[in-house]
Amino acid sequence: MISLDDMSVFAAVVDHAGFTAAARVLEISTPVVSKRVSALEAELGARLLNRTTRRLSLTEAGRVFYQHCRRVVNEARAAEASVAHLQDEPRGLLRVTAPVSVGSTELTRALVGFMRNYPEVEVELDLSDRRVDLADEGFDLSIRLTREPPEQLSARLLTNTQRVVCAAPEYWDKYGRPREPGELKDHSCIVYFPNNDFNLWYFDDGAGLQSVSVQGSFKANNATAMVEAAQGGLGVVMLSSVLVGPAIAAGRLEPVLESYSSPSAGIYALYLPNRYLPTKARVFIDYLVDWYQEDMVSSI
């Protein structure tokens, strides 16, 4: 297949009426220009230029080929400029996936500010608690709350978060507040399913990590539903402070066992390990890091 570089050299020779002038514009030597044109003629099996000691002129084949060359070279330059423009300023469609609990609240609030700052960006936000394949489904980013980001994806930490044990004040008034983690076995706990690992709640009192196996009458595969159930008095939840913080601040949930810590998790931006991360995605990640930092400071 004919090289775009060779087409560009030939077009420059015609545009500037000579090998020497074309070489000057292209910043290569005149012999290289002449050699590239000769190789192009050999590949096409046709003479493109009539060469004399005084001037160059196009053959019939050369005139036809030049018209195509000029169009192809112009299109290539336009495509390059378009991509460079996209890389320079965030614009275009940004596809983001996130769990319902995070995406429907704080992530949406962050997106409002981001889109005000970058009006050339369009956003498609997919809220789902299922595992999403970024490549197959065409997403730029996945926002996930996890202790360990998947190894096959690049990850950037947006903020750390602690898990909090809490329930509605009315629930505690009725069933009593636990003084140590083991007492949670006697409570109705709201757990995530279908993963049974979430039935084990971990605590650290400074002397070591202990686990408590909990159970209850209400299970859900969505953290927002779990928070709502806890606020309604159905039982005890252990969820990220990001998820239960607003309800605690409003007095709808009351934390317990605050002298114990739990393994921390993080909210991460996950993306395909590609060094050419689109500007729109890179700038949005930077924006989220700053947004979470400001949110933490304002809540102190």
From TrEMBL:
Molecular-function GO terms, alphabetical: DNA-binding transcription factor activity; sequence-specific DNA binding
InterPro entries, A to Z: LysR-type_TF_proteobact-type, LysR_HTH_N, LysR_subst-bd, WH-like_DNA-bd_sf, WH_DNA-bd_sf
Domain of life: Bacteria
GO terms under biological process: DNA-templated transcription
This protein's UniProt keywords: DNA-binding, Transcription, Transcription regulation
Claim: Transcription regulation is one of the keywords in the record: yes
Chain ranges of the HTH lysR-type domain: 2-59
Any Pfam family matching the protein: LysR_substrate
Family to which the UniProt record says this protein belongs: Belongs to the LysR transcriptional regulatory family.
Protein name listed in UniProt: LysR family transcriptional regulator
